[in-house]
Amino acid sequence: MTRRQYFVVILILGALSTIGPFSIDMYLPAFPAIARDLRTSVSQVQLSLTSYFIGIAFGQLLYGPLIDRFGRKKPLYAGLAVYLLATFGCATAGSIEVLIGMRLLQALGGCVGLVAAQALVRDLFPVGKIASVFSLLTLVIAVSPMIAPTVGGYATVALGWHSIFLILAGITVLMLLAIHYLLPDGRPADASLSLRPQAVMGSFFTVLRQPQFLTYALAGGIATSAPFAYIAGSPDVMMNIYHVSAQQYGWIFSFIAIAILAPNQLNHVLLKRFSSEQLVYAAMLYQTLMGILLVLGVWAGWFGVYGLIAMIFLFLCGQGLISPNASALSMAPFERHAGSAAALMGSFRMAFGAVASGTVSALHNGTALPMVGTMLACVLTGLTILLIGQQYKERKRARVLA
Questions:
Q1: Closest of 228, 248, 249, 225 to residue 28, by C-alpha
Q2: What share of the chain is helix, strand, coil (3-state, %, to 5)?
Q3: Domain 3-183+196-396 CATH superfamily
Q4: Domain ranges of the chain
Q5: Interhelix angle for 197-208 vs 42-70, to 10°?
Q6: Which of 14, 107, 147, 180 shows the smallest number of beta carbons within 10 Å?
Q7: pTM of the entire predicted model
Q8: In the chain, count of helices (H) and strands (E)?
């Protein structure tokens, strides 16, 4: 693979991975406008975010076996076509119920990008390079929250919230062209893999029986759902409690995205001296400590808007190290079942994200505590699972040596 081909492939895989972040982040500044237009509350609009997470979680389980059986591109085309139709449905929604339903369908189509991108990383790059490639993908993903909310804020003010979904539709068309003409096929279709329920479940169980996958997919998935709690709660906290404008919220969101972007690029350097296992543990421990300070500060009223932004920024710095390394450790044991592994890993993350966002909505009390409390709970739970998994691994190793 030439340098130019490498760059193009990373860019396209990153774009596929950003379908979810763009679909989530771009419409966040429009929450108050959507609530007014559809005669509902912001907490009800938050449920359209939760439905999107639910759709991604279940949809990935569908696409994992499909991209292993039919190759990577055919399911990509089908899923993105569904996403495109649902995006137009969101743009024309006349009630909150329709919007919630269309967001669910949008997620069921768009999540194919997440599964295919991660499987193609396993297809196209050697195992030793996977963590570095995931870091590059995370770089592309991390740029999207710097762009999407800002674009969404200005589009909402200038053209109305419906225009956000038309912009997403245009991006999807460009992505389909890039996939067709520029993206390698990856691992070919495998006709020996059956799509019968028993065979599909067998593939999933093969993946789930791998302790390394289970440890890092669960621990990483729960820990990386902390940003989803922030995403769900921040529109209400920033715009209704601290009274920032839609445009200002977009800029705040873009600034906080740097918290993931910068450490993610530091990951390239750190991997030369430390293992992925060490980096995941250190990042989770750091986030737990920062989360405790964040919750205590909000509860005690230490922070104004700038203090809260600064603390969230510091908290989220750990995500740039957790996500790529946990992903690499989860995917490393697999080749033939890479699609099923990617589907399960992504499904775990989005299911936990749905729980986190739904928890923030359910606990809504007019303060920032539901948001920051859920963020801390996610990371603390992830760290606990990681420690249990590591202890199991050490006990198993001791039994083998004995």
A1: 249
A2: 85, 0, 15
A3: MFS general substrate transporter like domains (1.20.1250.20)
A4: 3-183+196-396
A5: 100
A6: 180
A7: 0.70
A8: 18, 0
C-beta of residue 255 within 8 angstroms of C-beta of residue 308:
no
What is the distance between the alpha carbons of residues 282 and 290, in angstroms, rounded to a whole number?
A: 12
Closest CA to 65 of 116, 124, 30: 116
Instruction: Tell me the per-residue pLDDT of 93-112, one tens digit each, with 9 for 90 and over.
Output: 989 999 999 999 999 999 88
Tokens coding 328: 């690499």
CA distance 4 to 26: 30
**Within 13 Å and on the Cβ side, how many CA atoms surround 385?**
21
- Print burial letters for 207-223: b (CB count within 10 Å at least 16), e (below 16): beebebbbbbbbbbbbb
Q: Tell me: the pLDDT tens digits for 359-392?
A: 887 887 888 899 999 999 999 999 999 888 878 7
Residue 173's pLDDT is: 94
Q: What single-letter amino acid sits at 190?
A: D
Of the listed ranges 79-88, 118-127, 212-221, the least confidently predicted one is: 118-127
- In Å, the largest CA–CA distance within the chain is 69
d(CA 299, CA 382): 23
Residue at 397: amino acid letter: R
Indicate the Cα dihedral angle 389, 391, 393, 398, nearest 10°. -170
For residues 371 and 241, the answer to whether their CB atoms sit within 8 Å is no
pLDDT of residue 247: 79
Instruction: Match 């076509």 to its residue by tokens.
Output: 81
Q: What is the pLDDT of residue 142?
A: 64
pLDDT at 318: 84
- Region 260-285: mean pLDDT is 81
When pLDDT is cut at 50, 70 and 90, the band that residue 198 belongs to is confident
SS3 304: coil
- To the nearest 10°, report the CA torsion of 358, 361, 367, 371: 20
pLDDT score, position 127: 67
Q: Tell me the C-alpha distance between 140 and 146, whole Å.
A: 10
